[in-house]
């Protein structure tokens, strides 16, 4: 079991965060942004950055090479659609993507938008952790949480199909 700190400051204990979200044990902040046959997407629950999306497989697996052909096609299609929505409704020009296989959760890709303030904390991979920590520790104010919720609503609406 591990303890997860949610964006609202509450903590919850789960075996696998991704499974807990897919199974509805945890309601992601703002709800599910979009869901397909094999994936679902939600705002990251730990870091209040507008448009920061986690795309997770529904099946409990860890590595890219475990995806079936149908899952691979579903994955790249929905990843691209979310990216387009981030650009079209939130004006996000650049996104960092990463996923790691040595994780305690299962297969999930982070889509981390780049905002101007982030460049003060560096560029490229080494800036990601400072950016996330800054968001979690310094941006949990009501005005920012409101913009996070607005971004979730805008993406959810855009991705309805
Ligand atoms: Zn899982």
Short description:
The protein has 161 residues and is of the alpha+beta class. 35% of the residues lie in helices and 20% in strands. The chain has a single domain, classed as HIT-like (HIT family, subunit A, 2-Layer Sandwich), CATH 3.30.428.10.
What does this structure look like?
The chain has helices at residues 17-22, 69-90, 128-138, 142-158; strands spanning 2-5, 11-14, 32-35, 39-43, 53-57, 95-98, 108-113. With 161 residues, it is α+β, with helices and mostly antiparallel strands. It has one domain (2-158): 2-Layer Sandwich (HIT family, subunit A). The protein has a 5-stranded antiparallel beta sheet. Strands 1-2 form a two-stranded antiparallel sheet. It is globular, with a radius of gyration of 15 Å. The chain starts with a strand and ends with a helix. The structure holds zinc ion. Zinc ion (ZN) binds at residues 16, 18-19, 60, 106. This is Diadenosine tetraphosphate hydrolase. GO terms for molecular function: hydrolase activity. InterPro entries: HIT-like_sf. Keywords: Hydrolase.
